[in-house]
Amino acid sequence: MSKLLEVVFENAHEPMIVTDKDGKILLLNRSYREFLNVQDVIGQPVTDVIENTRMHIVGQAGVAEIADIQQIKGQNMIAHRIPIMDEGKVIAVLGTVLFQDVQELTALAAMVAQLKDELTYYKKELRRRMGATYHFDQIVGYSQKLQELKKFSQKVAKSDSTVLITGESGTGKELFAHAIHAESKRKMGPFIRVNCAAIPDSLLESELFGYEEGAFTGAVRRGKKGKFELANHGTILLDEIGDMPLPLQAKLLRVLQEKEVERVGAVRTTPIDVRVIASTNSDMLQSIKEGKFRADLYYRLNVVSLSIPPLRERLEDLPELVSNLLKQLGESTGVAVRAIDEEVWHVLRGYSWPGNVRELKNVLERALHLMEDDILKKEHIWLPVSDEGTPSSLSVSTHAVRPLKQILEEAEQEALRQAMQQAGGNKLNAAKLLQISKSSFYEKWEKYQ
């Protein structure tokens, strides 16, 4: 063991020295000898070998000196001097040099500061990506309905109560969910959104609750966390909850009651601490009557209910909405609007807006691409034909041949809109009307939003 200690001491990277209590050198390792440019100094007084040393002083006082600055050969070094005690008496002093030049310490401190800045940035970025994107001040409108809803939602946000948000497609249900999380005590935790209708039924259980290794063919090794586990200490938004398959509704009810999840293929449960916000554009009570949704799950979700008014019921918010949307679109398209003709407001107020604020944004974005100057005019506003077959507003008047792709996309978008209108905003029924799969409908619907 003594041979090992001797080898370790001799080959240590840091300069090291051991003296007796009177300051005579007992050991001096190679690193220190090379720095001092000395060889055989064992037995010599340390004051004759190392300038400005305090090893002998520490040997007499028996008090350690930590991170002390010592100048040797014109360089400021950082050194430790530690008395070695035996039965309360000093028998030796150990000296080590941490930095042979204070500039090394300065460089290290700068590197640590940079790493701390990077860590802070990545924490913020992670929080931004997993956290809420929208806040209450980004939900614009001065109508009484919206103001009362925002005030109530801000109050609800302070609690941990489960929230059910209802409203037509495009009214901003997800915005309210984001804002509630951002205003809650869980705002530093993750915000996880799951579209229950967009994920195929066969995959939804493993997406929500996760799975263990070998749970099924193609399962990832070591398993995978589900959305509920990812949302731990945060909030999960179950969007389009009305389209969740009945077998999964029973498992979700158990999660809400027991506050624990069971992965697919697992033999034990995992406790979770998650706030649940659910949203839907379906008539939930009608779905319960038709046997499509469990009544016990509905009442478990419907602790606090928020109903988002459609745009047609708050047309007084149009000026602020249009101003806000044009500002957003200007940043993404590079097209600025200096003025809006009065006739534009007449057209916008005369339309029923079945697609609500989302449709308004699409109409404005299309209008920006039709503008030839910086004034938004009536002829730039393209709105679909109403159910009665009459234009709900002036369409773009042009005889120029347009690209086939553009014509097909507009036709597809109009078909989706009409299906949604006929289905009363229920995406599942709209998909059935168009005779396409649920996932195909959601893919196309998201494409045009």
Number of strands: 14
**What is the CATH superfamily classification of the largest domain?**
P-loop containing nucleotide triphosphate hydrolases
List the domain count as a whole number.
Answer: 4
Q: Helix coverage percent of residues?
A: 40-55%
Write down the overall geometry: elongated
List the helices and strands and how they pair.
Blueprint: H1 2-11, E1 16-19, E2 25-28, H2 30-36, H3 46-49, H4 55-61, E3 65-72, E4 75-86, E5 89-99, H5 102-130, H6 144-157, E6 163-166, H7 173-183, E7 191-195, H8 201-209, H9 227-230, E8 235-239, H10 246-258, E9 260-261, E10 270-271, E11 275-280, H11 284-289, H12 295-301, E12 304-307, H13 318-333, E13 339-340, H14 342-349, H15 356-370, E14 375-376, H16 404-422, H17 427-434, H18 438-447
Parallel strand pairs: 6-11, 6-12, 7-8, 8-11, 13-14
Antiparallel strand pairs: 1-2, 1-5, 3-4, 4-5, 9-10
Helix pairs in contact: 6-7, 13-15, 16-17, 17-18
Protein name: Probable transcriptional regulator
Domain Sigma-54 factor interaction: 139-369
InterPro entries: AAA+_ATPase, AAA_lid_NorR, Homeodomain-like_sf, HTH_Fis, P-loop_NTPase, PAS, PAS-like_dom_sf, PAS_fold
Can you tell me about this structure?
This protein has 18 helices and 14 strands. 44% of the residues lie in helices and 16% in strands. A hairpin with a 2-residue loop joins strand 4 and strand 5 (89-99). Mean pLDDT is 86; it is low at 387-399. The chain has four domains: 2-99, PAS domain (Beta-Lactamase, 2-Layer Sandwich), CATH 3.30.450.20; 131-309, Rossmann fold, CATH 3.40.50.300; 312-397, Helicase, Ruva Protein, domain 3, CATH 1.10.8.60; 398-449, Arc Repressor Mutant, subunit A. The longest helix has 29 residues, at 102-130. The chain has a five-stranded antiparallel β-sheet. The chain has helices at residues 2-11, 30-36, 46-49, 55-61, 102-130, 144-157, 173-183, 201-209, 227-230, 246-258, 284-289, 295-301, 318-333, 342-349, 356-370, 404-422, 427-434, 438-447; strands at residues 16-19, 25-28, 65-72, 75-86, 89-99, 163-166, 191-195, 235-239, 260-261, 270-271, 275-280, 304-307, 339-340, 375-376. With 449 residues, it is α/β, with parallel strands linked by helices.
